[in-house]
Amino acid sequence: MFKQLTTCVLVMLLAACGQQESQPKVFTFTAIPDQDEARLIERFGKVADYLTEKLGVPVEYVPVKSYPAAVTAFKNNEVQLAWFGGLTGVQARRLVPDSHAIAQGYEDQFFVSYFIAHKSTGLELSDSLPESIAGKSFTFGSKGSTSGRLMPEFYLRETFGKAPEEIFSRVGFSGDHSATIALVQSGAYEIGAVNYKVWEDELAQGKINNDDVRVIYKTPDYVDYHWVIRGDVDAQWGEGFSETVRNTLLAIDDPEILAAFPREKFVNATDDNYIAIEETAQSIGLLDE
Fold first, then answer.
1. Of 80, 112, 59, residue with least CA distance to 221
2. What is the pLDDT of residue 156?
């Protein structure tokens, strides 16, 4: 009886192992949390479904709580693909040898940041950063955001020749662009810097009251968001898999998926596109934050 039981258990264990081995490996991706979590799950759940269908392997979106967490997940191979901003993409590629930028949104070739102000400041849209913002309270987005921190800080330093803490009475970090808009709209901060795409999206949704908050400056353009893939995916999913992922992203033409980003389409990207971002981050000491 004992022998029969042992044999049965062994057979069951072997069968279970066989089932596990036959299950296809899950390809995972993440994205910097630049908006509220519900919006991100809606956006990237659709992308996961699309990639699963087109790549022929199960694909899952892995949400993260912060920009650094997205970089860490990529570094630790918890995800193999990531939708990064310019700065986080550079940070991730420096940490993972042979990882590469493979695609960016069409609009990411000429991205801009908006400086926004509460109505109490009396500020209006200007062709340059108004000197009168000095002495007011100011909030960036995430510390690792290209459009919500890196480039706005670059233009602040270029204009005033000082660090933000020397320009403003109080400097904060909201965590994401939606939060920045809400904080400035409420008057909790007088000035803020945001991703123009999030601003335009929330304006279209009626979430922004232009009587309370308005754009006062638009930066010169720069490259920003992009997809980055780990260099070891071909070893795990087969020769040419990374190129297949690139081509699959470039081929997205479903308006519903593209509108979720929102982007007109995806275009090819290379690491060289982000050299200026890396140099800018290095010049103001943000690269290793």
1. 112
2. 96
Q: In 3D, which of 178, 166, 169 has the Cα closest to residue 208?
A: 178
Q: What is the pTM of this model?
A: 0.81
Written as one letter, the residue type at 203 is L
- The helix/strand/coil state of 180 is helix
Fill in the DSSP letter of residue 273: G
Retrieve residue 103's tokens.
């695609």
- Hey, what are 181's tokens? 């808009």
Enter the tokens of residue 144. Answer: 């690792």
Query: Are 195 and 151 within 8 A, CB to CB?
Result: no
Residue 19: pLDDT over 50: no
DSSP string covering 195-253, please?
EHHHHHHHHHTT---TTTEEEEEEPPPB---EEEE-TTHHHHH-TTHHHHHHHHHHT--
Question: Cα separation of 257 and 83, whole Å?
Answer: 14
* C-alpha span between 7 and 11 (Å, rounded): 6
For the chain, what percent of residues have pLDDT higher than 70? 91
Sign of CA dihedral 204, 209, 213, 215: positive
Judge contact between 266 and 104, C-beta under 8 A.
yes
Q: What is the Cα–Cα distance from 81 to 55, expressed in whole angstroms?
A: 13
pLDDT digits (tens, 9 = 90+) for 169-204: 999 999 999 999 999 999 999 999 999 999 999 999
- Span 248-263, pLDDT tens digits: 999 999 998 888 788 9
What is the torsion angle, in degrees rounded to the nearest 10, for the CA atoms of residue 43, residue 48, residue 50 and residue 52?
A: 180
The H or E element that residue 191 is part of is strand 191-195
